[in-house]
Write a structure and sequence with these properties.
With 340 residues, this protein is of the alpha+beta class. It contains 11 helices and 10 strands. The chain has a 7-stranded mixed beta sheet with strand order 1-5-6-10-9-8-7, sandwiched between helices. The structure holds 3,4-dihydroxyphenylalanine.
Length: 340
């Protein structure tokens, strides 16, 4: 029995010391020390020993149990250390490698200007209204007092989808949609995309953007129009921006005015950008025509209003002294990065 115990101990010690992982080690522990393990099996024969032999063999058996559990503990430590070592190697970081650049995007210059205008008008108590880009001729022309034979409706200038459905040529259509829904006091701006059959050049594009403005209330006057537009223009171009109001005609306003900005490229002396004029046409505006109010069910004897429409591209070119509109949609990163 003594030999059996010694042999058992020897083979256990050897197997345990070379266990490859925690699972193998646990299997070995159960195999040798478990309640149904090999050591217990040997000890079952203790009963057959003489009274003198029993304590001696008992001592050897205890010895073997302690040695084997010691070896298991030792192997546990060895395997844990190896696991840490393995992780350290696997997760090694070379802090001398160059870092990865994180490139943060930024707003497009058109969005910068749009955000500025929206913020300015929200500050003056306006809210933002929206309307469809595919629009009927009723909202884009008829309800804006623009008769069937008006040149603005020409098929040469407007994208027609059918006889009475078009891509809107102006955001003024949102005036009508707003006044149909909402009664005075009304104070809205409506930014959005607009379409005209224009050839692309430094100041034209068949797809462009406008911001429409509309105020209707009791006692609104041309002075309110002037004050609001001056606030807009000075907000965008600074206190010293030179502007002029020029009489004009729009079917949906009476009286009407166009507002020009002194050319930011030549300072007013005349250059190709301003076509030698010294001024750049910025926006159209006027007092809402009584017929338009009436069409929308608002009594023109009680209410007056003003409206304006401004091209966001124009605003943007002036704001950043950009000489060519095409730069805004060509997506040349060398151009766009300047606004980061
Ligand atoms: N809709 C005009 C255009 O596209 C701009 C405009 C002029 C808008 C006068 C208005 C306005 O609301 O009152 O050129």
């Amino acid at each position: 029995m003594r030999d059996k115990l010694e042999a058992l101990k020897a083979s256990a010690m050897e197997l345990i010391s070379s266990a490859a992982d925690e699972r193998a080690l646990e299997d070995l522990r159960v195999r040798f020390l478990g309640r149904k393990g090999e050591l217990t099996a040997v000890l079952k024969d203790m009963g057959r020993l003489s009274a003198e032999e029993r304590p001696v063999i008992g001592q050897i058996a205890n010895d073997a149990r302690e040695s084997i559990s010691g070896a298991v503990k030792e192997a546990e430590r060895r395997l844990a250390a190896a696991a840490v070592e393995h992780r350290l190697k696997a997760e090694k970081i070379d802090v001398t490698l160059p870092g990865k650049t994180v490139t943060a995007g930024h707003r497009h210059p058109m969005t910068v200007v749009l955000d500025e205008v929206v913020e300015m008008f929200i500050g003056m108590g306006f809210s933002v209204a929206e309307g469809p880009e595919v629009e009927t001729t009723y909202y884009c022309f008829d309800a804006l007092n623009t008769g069937e034979h008006h040149p603005a409706r020409d098929r040469q200038d407007t994208f027609y989808l059918s006889d009475d459905v078009i891509l809107r040529t102006q955001t003024s259509s949102v005036q009508i949609r707003t006044m149909e829904r909402q009664k005075p006091p009304i104070r809205i701006i409506s930014p959005g995309r607009t379409y005209r059959k224009d050839e692309i050049d430094a100041t034209h594009s068949p797809v462009f953007h406008q911001i429409e403005g509309l105020v209707v209330d009791k006692g609104v006057t041309f002075a309110d129009l002037k004050g609001t537009l001056e606030a807009l223009i000075k907000g965008i171009y600074g206190e010293n921006a030179a502007v002029r109001f020029r009489p004009h005609h729009f079917p949906y306003t009476e009286p009407s005015a166009e507002v020009d900005l002194q050319c930011f490229k030549c300072g007013g002396s005349g250059c190709p950008l301003c076509k030698g004029q010294g001024w750049i046409e910025l926006l159209g505006s006027g007092m809402v025509h009584p017929k338009v109010l009436a069409i929308c069910g608002i009594d023109p004897e009680v209410y007056t209003g003003f409206a304006f429409g401004v091209g966001i591209e124009r605003l943007c070119l002036g704001r950043f002294s950009i000489p060519d509109m095409r730069l805004l949609f060509e997506n040349d990163m060398r151009f766009l990065r300047q606004f980061g």
